[in-house]
Specification:
Bound molecules: zinc ion
Radius of gyration: 23 Å
Strand order of the largest sheet: 6-5-4-3-2-1-22-23
Strand content: 15-25%
Largest sheet: 8 strands, mixed
Length: 473
C-alpha cells in the first residue's frame, strides 16, 4: 500500500516536507527549512528520516525557503535524482538559495567571532557549492503538463497563486495495478490578489494535503490601492520619503506594480521609486521574463517597460545605496529585508526614522522579536547598528497583501472537489489554525479531515469512491 509520511509543516507553518513511498520507490514533496523558534530550527540539522540516496525524485511546489531550504542539504547527503519545479521556481530558487547560503555564512562567522557557539566552529546549513550542486538537479515542468517520474509516480502542476511559479502538485501513485491520487496544495494564494493569479480550485483526489496558514482567520476587506494612495499623499504633502521594507521576491514587485497603477490611473502624479536591493532587481527581471505567469505583465504596465521606466531607479551597489541618504521627498525607497531583520533597509531606517516628514510602511507579517514588530507596536526609539534611533517618522501598516488564502478562500479553493476524498490532511498551520480548518472542512463539506503530527505515517487506500479512511500506523 502506498504510504505518506509527514516530515515537516505538521502543526507548524514551516519545514514543509512529505515522503511518499510505493512499489519500492520514494518521492519527496517539498523539502523546506524550519524557521522561527530554536526548537524548530534545530530540526534542520537532524539526520533525515529517510536515506536521501534512495529517494527517486523531489517535487517542489514553490520557491519560498520553508519549501525548498532543506534541498541543498539532501543533495549533500547523497540525493542524486531529479528535482522537479516550475520554470519560474527554478530561476527564483537560485537567487533565494544563494542569498540564504550567504546569510548563513555571515551568521556562522558572527557566532564564531563572538564565541557564541558550542560548536567549533559554527557551520552554515549549506554553502554556495551545495546550492550550485542542487541547481544542477533542477528540472522544469510547466503548469498542466503531466510528468512521469518512474513506474510508480507521475504528477502535474496547477497554478496555486501565492507567488510567481507557485503550484499545487497532483501526484498519481501506481502500485499493484491500482492508482491513488494525492493533491498537495502547496501554499494557496488569495483570490483577487495583487499581481498573482487566482489559485486554480482543487481537483478531485483520493487524498488532499491542504495548507492552513490562516485556517482560523478572515482577511479584512480593504482596498490595498486606496490605503497606499492615502499614505503616499500624506507623506508627499509633508515633503517626506516613504520607506518600504519589502521581501525582495514577491512583495517588492507588488509594491512597484501598485504604485505604477496609482500613477497610470491618474490618482497621483509620477514620483521616483528607488528599488534599493540587488535581489529585488534580479527577482523583478525574473517576473518580467514570465509575463503570462502573473495577472499583469511587469514588462508592459501602462505601455512601457517597468524596469526601465523613467521613474524607477535601480540601485545595486553599496555606493548607490548610500547616495540615497541625501534623497529628498517626494520619493519612495523600497528595500529589504521585509521584517527589518537585516539588509540595506536598516541603514535607511537610521536615516529616515528620526524625521517626522517621512513614513515607514510595513507591508507584511512581522514576527515577534523583529524590529518591524517593535515599530508597529509603537516604539519611540529603536536600536539599529548599536545606536539609538528616535522614531519620529510615521509608521503605517498596509493591510491585505497576504500571500495566503484565508479560511473562507480555502473553502472556495476546495469547492471544486465534489466526490469526498478518503481523507484531507491539514498541514502548514499552527495547531489552532489547522484544527479550525479541519473542523470547518468536516462541518461544511462532510469530508474526513485530520491534522497529522510530525513524523506520522498513513497507509493510503487506492482510488475509488467512498473507500476506507487512512490507517494510522
Ligand atoms: Zn510560500
Amino acid at each position: 500500500m502506498p504510504r505518506l509520511t509527514f516530515l515537516g509543516a505538521a502543526q507548524t507553518v514551516t519545514g514543509s516536507q512529505y515522503l511518499l513511498e510505493a512499489a519500492g520507490r520514494r518521492v519527496v514533496v517539498d523539502s523546506g527549512m524550519f524557521q522561527g523558534e530554536k526548537e524548530l530550527r534545530l530540526r534542520n540539522w537532524a539526520a533525515p528520516e529517510f536515506d536521501p540516496a534512495r529517494v527517486d525524485a523531489i517535487v517542489l511546489t514553490h520557491t519560498h525557503l520553508d519549501h525548498i531550504g532543506r534541498v541543498p542539504r539532501l543533495v549533500k547527503q547523497g540525493f542524486r535524482g531529479p528535482i522537479f519545479c516550475t520554470p519560474p521556481t527554478k530561476d527564483l530558487a537560485e537567487i533565494l538559495l544563494l542569498d540564504a547560503a550567504h546569510l548563513q555564512k555571515e551568521d556562522a562567522e558572527y557566532l564564531n567571532r563572538k564565541g557564541l557557539t558550542k560548536h567549533t566552529p559554527a557551520l552554515p546549513l549549506f554553502d554556495e557549492t551545495d546550492v550550485r550542486e542542487a541547481m544542477e538537479l533542477l528540472r522544469t515542468v510547466p503548469l498542466g503538463r503531466p510528468q512521469e517520474v518512474n513506474d510508480a509516480f507521475s504528477f502535474s502542476y496547477r497554478d496555486a497563486g501565492h507567488l510567481l511559479g507557485a503550484a499545487s502538485a497532483g501526484v498519481t501513485v501506481r502500485e499493484d495495478g491500482r492508482e491513488t491520487h494525492i493533491l498537495f496544495s502547496g501554499d494557496v494564494g488569495r483570490f483577487d490578489a495583487v499581481l498573482t493569479k487566482d489559485p486554480e480550485p482543487a481537483p478531485e483526489a483520493d487524498y488532499l494535503v491542504v495548507e492552513s496558514t490562516y485556517g482560523n482567520r478572515t482577511h479584512p476587506e480593504l482596498s490595498v490601492l486606496d490605503q497606499l494612495e492615502g499614505v503616499l499623499k500624506k507623506t508627499f504633502a509633508r515633503g517626506g520619503v516613504l520607506l518600504i521594507p519589502a521581501f525582495a521576491v514577491g512583495r517588492a514587485q507588488q509594491m512597484v506594480y501598485l504604485m505604477d497603477q496609482l500613477v497610470t490611473e491618474g490618482r497621483l502624479r509620477a514620483f521616483p521609486i528607488h528599488v534599493d536591493s540587488p535581489m529585488a532587481i534580479d527577482a523583478t527581471r525574473i517576473y518580467a521574463a514570465y509575463p503570462d505567469a502573473s495577472k499583469a505583465s511587469l514588462n508592459n504596465i501602462g505601455g512601457r517597460s517597468l524596469l526601465h521606466g523613467k521613474w524607477i531607479k535601480l540601485h545595486r551597489t553599496r555606493a548607490e545605496s548610500e547616495a540615497l541618504n541625501t534623497l529628498r521627498g517626494p520619493a519612495v525607497i523600497i528595500s529589504s529585508s521585509g521584517m527589518l531583520s537585516g539588509g540595506r533597509i536598516l541603514h535607511h531606517c537610521r536615516q529616515r526614522l528620526p524625521h517626522a516628514e517621512n513614513t515607514l510602511l510595513i507591508t507584511g507579517y512581522q514576527a515577534v522579536g523583529t524590529l518591524g514588530r517593535a515599530l508597529l507596536d509603537g516604539a519611540t526609539s529603536v536600536r539599529i547598528h548599536k545606536g539609538d534611533v528616535p522614531v519620529l517618522a510615521e509608521v503605517r501598516d498596509l493591510k491585505g497583501l497576504s500571500g495566503h488564502a484565508d479560511a473562507g478562500e480555502m473553502m472556495r479553493w476546495l469547492s471544486g472537489v465534489g466526490r469526498a476524498p478518503h481523507a484531507v490532511f491539514v498541514t502548514h498551520g499552527e495547531p489552532e489554525a489547522a484544527q479550525a480548518l479541519a473542523a470547518r472542512i468536516g462541518r461544511e463539506r462532510g469530508f474526513e479531515a485530520r491534522v497529522p503530527a510530525h513524523g506520522e505515517s498513513f497507509d493510503l487506500a487506492a482510488g475509488g469512491t467512498g473507500g476506507p479512511g487512512p490507517e494510522v500506523l
